[in-house]
Amino acid sequence: MDRPNNPELRPGDAYVQSFARGLEVIRSFNAQSPRQTLSDVAARTGLTRAGARRILLTLQTLGYVESDGKLFALTPRILDLGFAYLSSMPMWNVAEPLMEALVEEVKESCSAAVLEGTDIVYVLRVSTRTIMRNSLGIGSRLPAYCTSMGRMLLAGLSDEEAMALLRASKLDARTRYTLVEPEAILAKVQQARKQGWSLVNQELEEGLVSMAAPVLNRAGRMVAAINVSGQANRTTARQMQDAMLAPLRQAAQEISQRLAM
């Protein structure tokens, strides 16, 4: 089971173990395991069957889990937890119309994401069409090391912090173009920090080109990134940079300015 890496957040007087175990049970459900038996949940979380059963029945009583008597599954009510985060962050209300205008201008999909551990998490998406084999929605996660928004968000950290996350990542060669050496990826992160934008050309998926720009809060701290993505057989990386970089950076700047009001 994953444990908190921050020493200040490790189990202590303020750590509610039963709550943490409940979250581990929720996280054990995913696209590969949408329905699980009690034994499955216990094995995936490291809990005893009795402990897993108590948590599952509690979640079922609260309406977050359903069961047919053998298999357990999350219910749509679990989305309340994610939407609580989105509704508590006014930036997404600010960002959405500007992202829609950007999509209308460049005719490519636009997304917003935040950094969470070694991944980026999608918090907003405005699509024109499906450009990846796996369609992305709010809550989708992708590795930071080989995505344009990931590298942009890593650029908001110090080199030491970015390298620590890269070394903690599983650096797989997802395509023949994917950089997998931490030092080479860090160089791209440093370049993104210097120029204020990031471009990733077919490293996440063959044929996918993506560019990202930072979203800053009132204090000037990077809190999110937005991107535009397209297909290399339609728009090369050079063409995307020439035609879409200026509108992308303008949209990111306008979102940042509205957050500062």
Set down the secondary structure blueprint:
Layout: H1 17-27, E1 35-36, H2 38-45, H3 49-62, E2 65-67, E3 72-74, H4 79-88, H5 91-106, E4 109-116, E5 119-126, E6 141-143, H6 148-154, H7 159-168, H8 182-195, E7 198-201, E8 208-216, E9 222-231, H9 237-259
Antiparallel strand pairs: 1-3, 2-3, 4-5, 4-9, 5-6, 7-8, 8-9
Task: Characterise this structure.
It is a single chain. By secondary structure, the chain is α+β, with helices and mostly antiparallel strands. The relative contact order is 0.10. The chain is globular. Helix content is 43%, strand content 19%. A six-stranded antiparallel beta sheet has the order 6-5-4-9-8-7, sandwiched between helices. A three-stranded antiparallel beta sheet has the order 1-3-2. The protein has nine helices and nine strands. Residues 16-76 form the HTH iclR-type domain. Keywords: DNA-binding, Transcription, Transcription regulation.
